[in-house]
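FORM 7B: Structural annotation worksheet

SECTION A. Query
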Amino acid sequence: MTLCSHLLLVVLLATTACTPADADPVETRSTAEAIAALRAWDHRRAQAWADGDEAALAGIYTPGSRTGRHDRAMLAAYAARGLRVTGLRTQVLSATLLSRAPGRVRLEVVDRMVGAHAVGRGRRIALPRDRPSERVVSLRRVSGSWLVEEVTDAGSAS
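SECTION B. Predicted structure
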């Protein structure tokens, strides 16, 4: 088995292990697929931050995304200080599929950022571990890629 096969199996087992015995298998598979899409998106985001690549970061959000604008502004602020952020990982502590439609999914997630370092100009600064946050992530499939439309606080999401 390849590493990717192992990871997919772990995601599927973790998702099905946390669902009731009477859960709809299609819903369980849809949740696992949505979580996998989010994890792949998180990986692309971490790479854009590590590279300091604002264009790559813009490319993982839908046009007009407020969340995307905010993320690019934060990246630009680090770049203005001569820093990049490496090792950025998002730990998804829980995820619930709120809705799905062709080319769209909404997930409620509890996640946190870990392992990040600001590096540059001969410095390597460990960034503080994020506290768990509950968010609603809206993704849309565009030209074969999952892009984030918005990320909102779960308490304020509509």
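SECTION C. Observations
The chain has a mean pLDDT of 85. Strands lie at 84-86, 89-101, 104-114, 117-120, 123-126, 133-142, 145-153.

SECTION D. Sign-off
Analyst initials: ____
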